[in-house]
Design goal:
alpha+beta, Pemi-like Protein 1, Chain: D, 2 domains, 2 helices
C-alpha cells in the first residue's frame, strides 16, 4: 500500500522522525495501548508496521514457541533440529561434503 500525504518531516539530531498519529492509527496503533512496531528498510523506503512475533528459523507466526536468548523458536523448528541431530546429522554432512 503506497500512501502519499504530502507531509514532510526532518529528522532530529539523532535521526528520529515523528509520525503523525492518524497515520499510526490507520495501521492499528493506539497511543492508549502501545504495542511494538517493526521498522524495516528496503532500498530508499522505510516501512513501519505492527510487529508480529515469529520464529527466527521458519518465519511461522502461529503455534507454540520457545524463547532462546530473547528470540522465538517454534516448537516445530526445535523438533526438526532434534531430528537432524538425532538421525540425520551424518546424512547432512555427507550431502554437504559432496557439494
Amino acid at each position: 500500500m503506497k500512501h502519499t500525504t504530502g507531509i514532510v518531516r526532518t529528522p532530529d539530531r539523532i535521526g528520529r522522525i515523528n509520525v503523525p498519529q492518524d497515520m499510526l492509527k490507520s495501521i492499528g496503533f493506539s497511543a492508549e495501548k502501545p504495542e511494538p512496531m517493526e521498522i524495516s528498510c528496503n532500498g530508499e523506503s522505510i516501512t513501519i508496521r505492527p510487529y508480529i512475533p515469529h520464529c527466527i528459523l521458519t518465519g511461522v507466526t502461529e503455534g507454540q514457541y520457545l524463547e532462546y536468548n530473547g528470540r522465538r523458536i517454534s516448537k516445530q523448528a526445535v523438533k526438526d533440529i532434534v531430528k537432524l541431530v538425532d538421525g540425520g546429522w551424518k546424512n547432512f554432512e555427507e550431502q554437504t561434503d559432496s557439494e
